Amino acid sequence: MRERRDLIVSKGWLQACLLVVLFGFLVLGILAYKTYQDDPPVAARVVNPAGRTLFTRSDVSAGQKVFLHNGLMEYGSIFGHGAYLGPDFTDDYLHRAALSVKDRYSAGGKAGEAEQKTIDDFQANRYDSETNTIVYSAAQARAFEQLRRHYAEYFGDPTTRFGLRPDAITSPQKIKELTAFFSWSAWASAARRPGHNYSYTNNWPPEKLVDNTPTANVLIWSAVSLIALLGGIGLLFGAFGRWNFLGWRGREQATLSFRSPGDVALTPAQRATAWFFLVMAALFLIQALVGAASQHYRADLGDFFGIDLAQVFPYNLTRTFHVQLAIFFVSASYLAAGIFLAPMIARREPRGQGKLAYILLGAVALVVFGSLIGEFAGVHGWLGGLGGLVGDQGFEYLDLGRLWQVLLVIGLFFWVAILWRGLRGRLSREHVGNMPWLFFFAALAIPAFYAVGLLANAGDTFTVTDFWRFWVVHLWVEDFLELFTTVMVAYIFVLLGVVREKVALTVIFLDILLYSAGGVIGTMHHLYFSGEPAEHMALGAVFSAAEVIPLTFLTVEAWSFLQLGARQESRSRMPFPHRWAVMFLVAVGFWNFLGAGVFGFLINLPIVSYYEIGTALTANHGHAAMMGVYGMLAVGLAMFCLRYLIPAERWPERAAKTSFWSLNIGLAWMCFSDLLPLGFIQLYESVSNSYFHARSLDFLTKSTNTLLEWLRFPGDVLFIVGGILPLLYICWLGVRHRVKRETLEEPEEILFTDVTEPAAEGVAP
Fold this sequence. Notes:
mainly alpha, 10 strands, two-stranded antiparallel sheet, single chain
C-alpha cells in the first residue's frame, strides 16, 4: 500500500483557515441565539382599547403562510426582502395605517397635534408580556379594519392590472390573516424596542408619518464599514507587495504541450455529462425567457405584446421560475463539472459511475420539473393545504415545495456519494489538507449548507425564517459555492499544467481565509432591518465590507496570471484548446469584482440599504453577481468539458465566441441601461420623497422608468439570441457527436497536458 502523501504546503495555512472558519461560525451561533431571544414578539392577541380582539397569533402565522404559499414574496416584499413589482407590504401597511390615524386625529384637532399623536400611537410599545397582548389605539384599530377592506379589493381584483392573477385571494378569512401578518410587521417596524429609542427593525422603513429616521447605528456602522474596507485593502496590498505568497512565477520556465481534445479518451461518467450540459442550457434558456417576461411587467404592466400574460403566468409565477431556474441551471453545470473532473483527479473511474450519473440526471429532472409544476399549481391556488409541501413554499430562493427541497438535498448528497466512490482510492493516499480532499470537502459543503434551508419554517416568525433562509442565499452561495468554484478552477489549471499544485493549493487556502473572514459573519448584512438586534447590523456591516477585499486583490492578481498563461501557450507545440472556457473564467473575475464587489458594497452600507432595499439597485447587484459570477462560471465549465466531449473537427469556435461576447455585453446592457439608473432614480425618490412612493406601481410605471425598461430590450434579445442559443447548440453537439473513445484506468490517456520541467542548473538535459 502506498504511503499517504504529506501536506504539500505549510500547516500554518490549514490552521489559519480552520481558526477563521470556526470563529465565524461561533459568532453565527451566538447571533442565532440572539435571533431567537430578541426577535419581535408575536402576541397571543392584539386588541382595541375596549379589549375586543382584532387578530391573534394564529392569524399572523396563518397570514404569513398565505403570503408565502401564494408566491407573494416573489411579487412584493416584507421587511424589504422579496420581489420588486409589488409594494413592500410592511411599509405599505405602515404608511396607509399612519395616514388613516393622522386623518382621524386631524378631524378633531390641530394638524400639528394630529401628527404627534400619530407618532406616539405607532412608536408606543404596548406589548404586555404577562398577558401576551398588544393594545392598539382606537385609531389604529380603525385603520386595521380599513386596510382589511383595502387588501380584499387589491388581492381580489378580478383583473390583472396589478400583475397578479385575477381573484388571487378572495377568502375573507385569508384576507384577515394576511392583513394581520402585514399589521404585525408594521407594528414591529415602528414600536420601540424595549430599552432603546428605535424600533425592532432599527427604524426601518423610512416613514416620516411615524418619525422613522436612520438610527445612530445605521450611520456609525456605515462609516466604520468604509474604514474597514479601505484599511483592509491597504493592509492586503501592503502584505502582498512585500511577500510573494502565491509564487505565480514557479512554472514560467516549464514547457507545456497541450494535448488535442481528440487525443483524450473519456470515461463513461464523463461522457454522461454531455446530457447534464444540454439540460443546463435548456434550463438557462427557459430561465432567461421567464426573466424577460418578468421584466416586461415593469415596462407594460397590463399587456405582453397583445397577450394578457398574467391570466396564466402572473408576475409572481414568472419571477418564481426565474429565480429557481437560476439555481437549477448553475447547479446542473456544477454537478456535471464535478463528475467530469473526478476521474482526472483519481486517475481512474470505478465501473458503474456512468449509470449512477444518469440516475442522478433523472433525479435532477424530477426535482426541477416537479417543483416547477408544483409552483404553477400553488400560485394558481389549486393545491389547498398541500401548497407548502408540493407547491410553492414561498421563500425567495427557496420557493420550491418542502418535498422537492428534501429530494434536492438527497440528490446533492447522492452526487457527493458518486464523487466519493470515484475519489476514495486517491483520498486514501492524501493528507486531508491536500487538493483531492479539499475538492471532496468543497463538494460535501454544497448539500450540507443547502440543507440548512430546511430550518426556514413558515410557522416560525418571519425574522427567524429569514435568518435561516439567508444561510442559503448568502452563506451557501457566496462562501461555499465560491469555495467549490475556486477548487474546481484551480484543479483545471493544475491538470492543464498552467500552475503547480502547490501554488494552486495556496490559492485555495487564501480563498478560504479571505472569503471566510468576511463572508461568514457578513451574512448578517442582509438582516439589518428584519427584526434583528443592532449587533447583527454592526457585525454584518463591518465583515461584509471585508468581502470586497479578496475580490479586489484577486482581480488585480489575475492579470499577472493571464500574462503567465499567454507566455506558456506561446511555447506549446499544440494551440491552447480552452480559449473560450478561460475567457468565461476571466469574465467571472470581472463580474465578481463589479457585481459582487462594487455593486454589492454599494447596497451593503447600512445607510444606503436603509433607503434602497428592495429597489432596482438590489436587483442590479443580484443580476451582476448571480449571472456574472455563477452563470458565467456554469457556462465556462460547460465550455471546458464540451471541448473534450465534442470531436475537434466539429468544435464550433464561432458559436463559442458569439456566446461569450453576447452574454457579457447583454448582461452589461441589462445593468447599465436599466437596473443601475432605475435603482438610483428609486433611491433618490426614496430619500427625497418617501420609500412608499419609490416602491409604488404608480412610480414604477412612470414614463421615464418605462423608457428605461424598453431601452433594456435590445440587450435582453442579444443575451438570449446571441448568448444562450449558441450555447444550446454547442451542448447539443456534445450529445449528438460525443467522442467514442472510453477508458477506465489509463492515466496516460486522461491527462490534458504534457509538462516538461527545465533541467536543474548545471545538469545536462
